[in-house]
């Protein structure tokens, strides 16, 4: 793919636009995956990062295309708005730029997201377990295989033992967004609720 983009970009070197090679590569990518009416020409997965103000036309700052780098606002808008484009929400911390929610894009949380979850809970969320969160796995409350997202609201620290218990022994867990507590239900139906203060 990179070779094809590079070849197309180099063929436009003397087109009179004055665009740099990386800009022409971005143009080549747009040309390759879209048609004149903006519909997708090929089924491809291209990660395009577009700030909201660029997407809405309020800014002309560049976005970026994974594997290529910065791309003109017009190119990233065209790719992001192409017919058949799939959108993925990725939430970043506005202060640090760290990714804190990757939705369904990836199974494993980023280091920053895992740290957020471990700091929030401080220990394994299984009832009465005292294992510090820093020594725990980060587990999906709603399993990834069942459509669960990789975000702070769907992740919890579980020690390795209780991680296995959850998946192999039939325990169920739910996180209460309002209180921040977790409710575990045993295979026999008995419920145990942890409150955030219990986890510190």
Automatic annotation (TrEMBL):
Organism: Mangrovactinospora gilvigrisea
InterPro entries: DUF222, HNH, HNH_nuc
Organism taxonomic ancestry: Bacteria, Bacillati, Actinomycetota, Actinomycetes, Kitasatosporales
Name of the protein this chain belongs to: HNH nuclease domain-containing protein
Pfam families hit by this protein: DUF222 (PF02720), HNH (PF01844)
Domain of life assignment: Bacteria
GO molecular function: endonuclease activity; nucleic acid binding; zinc ion binding
Similarity remark: Belongs to the Rv1128c/1148c/1588c/1702c/1945/3466 family.
Stretches assigned to the HNH nuclease domain: 112-164
